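Next up, a chain.

===
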Amino acid sequence: MSYSERWQELFGPTGNGPAMRLASASNDPGAGAGGTGNLKYSKGPWTSASGTAGDLRTRTETSRSVLGRGHEGVEAGAAGLSSVTALKAVLTSWEERLKTVRDECEQLKGTLRTVATEIGETETAIKTSFKGVHGPGEGDEKR
């Protein structure tokens, strides 16, 4: 099988037949998002998601701390009741869950921030690499 045949098998025939396209790369204004043929990127969503993960981490830790303080003195005040043991087991279970969420949010915050930085740096490098390259109609007056 030739390269061209393999390409057509994977992505569809060229010409008027069906083909795989990104919605954002469509030149048809009614084809959903995009429509201009230009793929746009903004690091804003990645940075925002990182901040949200950081906020959730902080709120989770605060909630875990408040939960613990809310249970202080329960054992002494309800000594001898069987429900104290069950309550302590529930508290321990929730503290562990909240620690897990807190730790996962911390990891996610760093990962999202790294993605935002890397995409921003890649975008800058690509913009720099295109300096001096003229599109249709640009730079024709110098010829």
The chain has a mean pLDDT of 76. The radius of gyration is 28 Å. Residues 44-128 form one domain.
